[in-house]
Amino acid sequence: MPITLPQNLPAFDVLSREGVMVMSPERASAQEIRPLRIGLLNLMPKKIQTENQFARLIGATPLQIDFQLIRMSEHQAKNTAADHMETFYRPFSDVTATGEKFDGLIITGAPIEHLPYEDVTYWNELKRVMDWTQTHVHSTFGVCWGGMAMIYHFHGVPKHLLQKKAFGCFPHRNLQPTSPYLRGFSDDFVIPVSRWTEIHQADIARANGLVTLLGSDETGPCLVEDTAHRALYIFNHIEYDSDTLKQEYDRDIANSTPINVPLNYYEGDDPARAPLNRWRSHAHLLYGNWINEIYQSTPYDLTQIGR
């Protein structure tokens, strides 16, 4: 939570420049508290696993979160029980029909990287979702393929196919230490990566208004801020559980799919040993910082979002 300091105290500017959460007494006294409405547009095949991963991270703050599960209207889940989807998820068409607004929305990844965006069966509806966020969501977080889809839709930044899958825990660097989204981040750390495509920094640099916050020498840009669209795009899976990469590796081995042992994941790169989680603390920091930034800036009156 922020520290409240008089705005004319020298420490206010010093701490602000360092990325410390600072709030003036006037702003603090004017705040009213209500639950934050955070939606999860879940495009992953393992819906329940993905729900748990994101709920664990956004539920770790002191703030009350109203967590809403959303699915594409024109796409039926094949890997999750129909009664679960019927009970807990609402189609996007229902959300728009009621005119609801959200403080935050997470758009997950999807295992469809090999397809051109326009060939995805629900691409037209997803474009409507992304446009809808500009008037009905205060801050949107696109994850892996979801982030790639957003940066392509809003800026035309393409994805590029890799010759082999980027798979493992790769070192990343904190490129913007004073960013409010990176409060508490180390200078370097590892993040799980599992994808067949990548985004090039040169393409990001050619777009207007994009800032790369986290990057890797091996796997490229990781976290990008898009202020104009009130969005963050992360191309890797910092939300993963300790054993998620193991599940993907074991699945591919069982299916005789060619796959490398995930790098820097098992101790000694030995899949017979237990994987090591070396990203959990940074995952909590990132999503906690995102929730805090939403809390600091979202209107108390939800109807004012997007105006």
Q: Could you explain the architecture of this structure?
A:
This protein has helices at 10-17, 25-30, 47-58, 82-88, 92-97, 123-136, 145-155, 201-206, 244-254, 280-297; strands spanning 3-4, 22-23, 36-41, 65-71, 89-91, 102-107, 137-143, 160-174, 188-198, 210-216, 220-226, 231-234. A ten-stranded mixed beta sheet has the order 5-4-3-6-7-12-11-10-8-9. Strands 1-2 form a two-stranded parallel sheet. The two termini are 26 Å apart. The protein has a domain at 30-160 and 197-239 and 280-298: Class I glutamine amidotransferase (GATase) domain (Rossmann fold). The longest helix is centred in the last third of the chain and has 18 residues, at 280-297. The mean pLDDT is 91. It is globular, with a radius of gyration of 20 Å. Helix 4 links the parallel strand 4 and strand 5. It is an alpha/beta fold. It has ten helices and twelve strands.
**Count, helices:** 10
Output mean pLDDT: 91
Q: Which runs of at least 5 residues are low in confidence (pLDDT < 50)? A: none
CATH topology of the domain at 30-160 and 197-239 and 280-298: Rossmann fold
Distance between the termini: 26 Å
**CATH class designation of the domain at 30-160 and 197-239 and 280-298:** Alpha Beta
Largest sheet: 10 strands, mixed
Query: What's the order of the H and E elements?
Result: EHEHEHEHEHEHEHEEHEEEHH
CATH level-four homologous superfamily name of the domain at 30-160 and 197-239 and 280-298:
Class I glutamine amidotransferase (GATase) domain
Structural class: alpha/beta
* CATH architecture field of the domain at 30-160 and 197-239 and 280-298: 3-Layer(aba) Sandwich
Main-sheet strand order equals 5-4-3-6-7-12-11-10-8-9
State the helical fraction. 25-40%
Total strand segments: 12
**What integer value in Å does the Rg equal?**
20 Å
| Global morphology | globular
